[in-house]
């Protein structure tokens, strides 16, 4: 039994993240109170720990072997925090990123943030923002097109993969978007 209520994967993170002996979940709200942490549960002992940051009501998070990256997003901008898992200390915080972050993954040195930007013409564009892990500074951004219905993101061998279940609000699809993070080549693969 846990004292936490409202445990979700996160507003946009569709699955728990497992790293070593720990499972990570979001707990954006408890009752009417917004929380500034994600939860770490040990798979063997069932002991829970709060991974806290300056980010209020985490909507997206990613965890690697040493750090948790927590983001909270509105429609026009997002905040991002880097927390050391061992010490629990927040090492970096950024509150000025443009766009609506919906997913994150990482390689050894970089964070890949899937971000939506809305235009005044009711158009929606997706970007893959590439950030340095050490200080959360943006390296570059790759324009993608509408990625509003993306469900998952992962990184493997120089490529970011995005799963998209809908092409638009009324058009079902089953697409895999592959992005070469070195050449910035974007390939849409329609799956059966």
Give a brief outline of the structure.
The protein has 192 residues and is mainly β.
Topology:
Blueprint: E1 17-19, E2 22-26, E3 29-30, E4 33-34, E5 37-42, E6 48-52, E7 60-63, E8 67-73, E9 77-84, E10 90-98, E11 100-106, E12 110-118, E13 124-132, E14 138-145, E15 150-156, E16 159-168, E17 171-180, E18 186-190
How is this structure best described in words?
The protein is mainly β and 192 residues long. The chain has a 4-stranded antiparallel beta sheet with strand order 1-2-5-6, with no helix packed on it. It has no helices and 18 strands.
Order of strands across the main sheet: 1-2-5-6
Rg, rounded, reads: 16 Å
Unreliable spans are none
Order of helices and strands: EEEEEEEEEEEEEEEEEE
Structural class: mainly beta
* Molecular shape: globular
- Helix coverage percent of residues? under 10%
- Strands, total number: 18
- Quote the beta fraction: over 45%
Count of DSSP helices? Answer: 0
Distance between the termini: 42 Å
Assembly category = single chain
Please name the defining characteristics of this protein.
mainly beta, globular, single chain, 192 residues, 18 strands
